[in-house]
Amino acid sequence: MPYGLRIVGSSGAVQIDQFYRNLMLRTVATATTSSPDKDDYQTFTEYPKNGYSYMDAAPPSSPETPLVFFSADAYTGLSDSGFLVTNKARGSTSKLAVFDTPLPLPSPLNKWGLVVRTAAGVVTYYSGYRYLRVHQVLTGSDYVANPINLSLPTNRKWGFCCFKWAGRTRMDDDRAYDDIGSNLRFYRIRREIMGLRLSGGVLTSIDMSYMDDDDYAFPDMAYDHQDSVDRSYAVIIADMTHVPEW
What is the model's pTM? Predict the structure, then answer.
């Protein structure tokens, strides 16, 4: 690179140059939890009476490869259906940060700042955007056998993204079909997922278990205890200190 700009960190590694590529912060949303709680009919003792709650962030404009980060102020994890599940009560709020591919440069452009381009003129960095700062990527083969217990600096703000689902789905026998003389039974899916919480600077994980809202009618014993298990995990830990609203 005979001409151009290169920003080097204290370790000597190149941080920003013409090859820089990263996701930018599109939005910080306050999500209100909705609930799969079952108040009217409940047969599974494993399902907590207060239940778990779903929460989701509205997708950014022109979504391409969005990553959703949560604050883990309560145990939160990713379900196999793509929803975030938390053990906060229904109607609670939680912060979600959505990162996606950078938008085109704003117009008019702020006269103060820095824009880095390739030799062909393609923008690779703009100082007016807030980019994803990856602190660490946690991976493991089984969060139940080896729960996460990680200390993080308390003078920083952190966000967490479950890059993949980790857990188990199981079809459990719920109750007899209502019609007299039928050999059908109702089955309901029990879902187990890895939940993360940050408290006192320590990130921990648990196995969160909850039931689906709906029953499915099948012949007796046809799907009893059908399992799908994958407890391997990949968690992106992002430093969110540069985001005041986090």
Answer: 0.81
